[in-house]
Amino acid sequence: MSACIFDHPIRFENNLNMEGISFAYPAWYLGLCLLAGLIYALVLYYRNDSFRDAPSWLSGVLSILRFLAVSVLAFLLLSPILRSTQTQSQKPVIVFAQDGSESVAVGWSPEDSTTYVNNVKNLTGQLAENYEVVNYTFGQEVRDTLDFSFTDKRTNLANLLGEVYDVYSNQNLGAVIISSDGIYNEGANPVYTDAKLNAPVYTLGLGDTTRRKDVLVKRVFHNKIAYLGDKFSIQVDIGAQNAAGTTTPLRIARIENGQRRELINESVNIDRNDYFSTREFILDADRAGVNRYRISIGTIAGEASTINNTRDIYVDVLEARQKVLILAHAPHPDISALKQSINEGQNNEVTVAYRNTFDGNVRDYDLVVLHQLPNRNESLNDLLAQLKTNNIPVWFFAGDQSGLQAFNSAQQLINISGNGRNTNEVEPKLANNFTLFKVDEEVRALLPVLPPVVTPFGEFSSGSNASVLLYQEIGRISTEYPLLSLGEEDGRRMAVFAGTGIWKWRLFDYLDKKNHNRFNELVSQVIQYLSVKDDKRRFRVSLATNIFDENEPIIFDAELYNDNYELINEPSAQLVITDSEGREYNYTFNPTGRAYRLNAGILPVGNYRFSANVNTGTESLNYNGQFSVQAVQLERYELTADHDLLRLLSERYGGELLDMTGFNALPQTLAERGTVKPVLYETTTTRSLINLKGIFFAILFLLSLEWFLRRYYGSY
Predict the structure, then answer these.
(1) Is the dihedral of CA 407, 409, 415, 420 positive or negative?
(2) Tens of pLDDT along 423-476?
(3) Class assignment of domain 539-630?
């Protein structure tokens, strides 16, 4: 569906008809009203000697005035009601939608474009004489204007149909006219969209349906992110039409500082006219940062178009691989379960070692898991000191081999009082007040049914800095004994699991769901909490992504903190963007809320560096980064118009596929069909005559005129 819904007003033509007057009493009561007026006038003026010196006509006029006034007053006592009918006519709505994507105008000359625009304007002008015409342009988005620039980088036909349905499903929609080449490269197939339009859809087939001689790179599938030192896959779909018997090279190159470094070159033998092939290549992620790769297939003689022979992709190679050490007292099933789950994270590299054979250096690792260490025979003071000195996060697992005194000294999250030789079987119970991270709903559902784990027998208590994620449930008794706690000690993140046997949780997850997703999610959330390094910089700039499409605005967000680490945005912040050729673009951030924001707009394809600066008055703070803008090339790779899709779309909604002759004759076609008609809305209203101001003033006039004549001729 579209991201926005346009509001088009409904226009009505009004016609008001007065139907008549009705009464709350029988109609013959009107005679009584007239009789009452007559009697009143006769009593007052018949043989009245007050006006014997006045003109002869005066008594008659006064009698008539009094007769009318009394009769009208008596008439109002019958509660007369005035009934009127208002008819509103709503013109049928005709939606005209223009495909604004690049593929539509490929091969058009300026004369072709001018002729087409004139035809559209002539058609909409004729339709506007009898219908309410609403114009749209669609492509990568739906716009409520006509745009003939044909610059959209994507085509989403389903989005248009959804927009029309949302706006006009409850209105008098007469017809929908879609002018397009039928090529869509985003969204669902429009023929199978859920939009149930109650109006015919007419389509005008633009573009060329001739299958010409052509080879092209149809699609490229690749990782958007890779890690330095890894390998990653690129899968290339190659297509060719009417090119049987030709051979052409397929090349992959990396673009560095405007220079092309070829990585792969192999031949493609096209053995049939309707050719399709998929090739997969493995490349080395040997250069950190955003890498630009160009996949190209050579041109052949007589090729209709060469713009679809090349496609560029971008891969962000990160140096953020996290090295995790699982150091254990002895082999245990937990170790394998932990290793497999931690390895599910793309940026994790897990090493398993045992205390009696480990000869490495813990400083080489970003996170250390200590399984049943310290043990009863060794306190590991030197190793624990190194971990603390180097601020390395640790996840402790306590078991029957743990030295509890040394274990309690090594961390302050969970304290266990006991000899450690006896054990309990406990089940996990989720803490209600845990707030360090949000526990996934599926994990919440898994925890109550997990098998028990083994914990040392004794008394358990939580440290002041501990956030308990899981409590122990012994049998059916819920306790306040912590099972899994997380927290910080002297700025270092730590976790403690006061037991062993989580390998059973992993197996149970698989038995229940045929995968390990929920167990992996729980382990991943703990690992992520431990491994996140707080950004203590007081001035930060962030982007939603490092790779933008060429039609996508570049938006920067920035935060500035004072010495008390409070957000401020009073100082002016600047940003300089530098492209690969050294050109600089200068901007100033806009304060928004308590932070900053900057919309740098749309930038040309290429690699960019940026440098942000803010002066607080006492110091100057800087932040540097980089991003890339990639070409959106979807509209280049399918240039053969798909009129069959337009035909199917029209048939689904009871319309038809038109050529230009039928397009120009569409107003006549609609008139001959007679199905596009205005809708009449009839409203009947009633109101009491006693509420009409005109009647009041009429009675007032009659009585006032009578009084004036009587006064003038000396009766009063």
Answers:
(1) positive
(2) 999 999 999 999 898 898 999 999 999 999 999 999 999 999 999 999 999 988
(3) mainly beta
Is 616's pLDDT higher than 60?
A: yes
Give dist(CA 478, CA 461) in Å, integer.
Answer: 15
pLDDT at 208 over 50: yes
Question: Per-residue pLDDT averaged across 382-411, rounded?
Answer: 93
- Long-range contacts of range 112-120, CB-CB < 8 Å, 24 or more positions apart? 113/148, 116/148, 117/148, 119/660, 119/663, 119/664, 120/96, 120/146, 120/148, 120/179
Q: Are 598 and 555 in contact (CB under 8 A)?
A: yes
Find all residues with CB under 8 Å of 409, minimum gap 6, and list them.
379
CA atoms of 570 and 562, how far apart (whole Å): 11
Tokens representing residue 7 in the block:
């509001």
Question: Cβ distance 168 to 136 under 8 Å?
Answer: no
The pLDDT, as a whole number, for residue 715 is 58
Question: Crossing angle for the helix pair 517-531 and 333-343, nearest 10 degrees?
Answer: 80
Q: Do the domains 214-318 and 539-630 sit in the same CATH topology, yes or no?
A: yes
| Distance in Å from the first CA to the final CA of the chain | 82
Closest CA to 325 of 394, 386, 372, 276: 394
User: What average pLDDT does range 112-122 have in this prediction?
Assistant: 92
Q: What is the pLDDT of residues 60-79, one digit of tens each?
A: 888 888 889 888 888 888 88
**pLDDT > 70 fraction of the chain, expressed in percent and rounded:** 95
Q: Distance (Å, rounded) from C-alpha 511 to C-alpha 73?
A: 91
Question: What are the boundaries of each domain within the chain?
Answer: 13-87+686-712, 92-208+641-673, 214-318, 323-531, 539-630
* CA-wise closest residue to 413 among 389, 396, 438: 396
Q: Domain 214-318 - what CATH class?
A: mainly beta
Distinct helix (H) and strand (E) counts, the chain: 14, 38
Environment class of residue 69 by beta-carbon count within 10 Å: exposed (0-12), middle (13-18) or buried (19+)? buried
Q: What is the pLDDT of residue 534?
A: 66
Q: What is the 3-state secondary structure (H, E, C) of 374-423?
A: CECCCCCHHHHHHHHHCCCCEEEECCCCECHHHHHHHCCCEEEECCCCCE
CATH code assigned to 323-531: 3.40.50.880
Give the tens place of pLDDT for each residue, 618-636.
Answer: 899 999 888 888 887 777 6
Cα–Cα distance list, 108 to 112, 167, 179 (Å) = 6, 33, 15
Quick one: tokens of 567? 């957000």
Could you tell me which of 540, 679, 710, 680 has the C-alpha nearest to residue 174?
679
What is 92-208+641-673's CATH topology?
Rossmann fold (3.40.50)
Q: Write down the pLDDT at residue 1.
A: 36
The pLDDT of residue 42 is 84
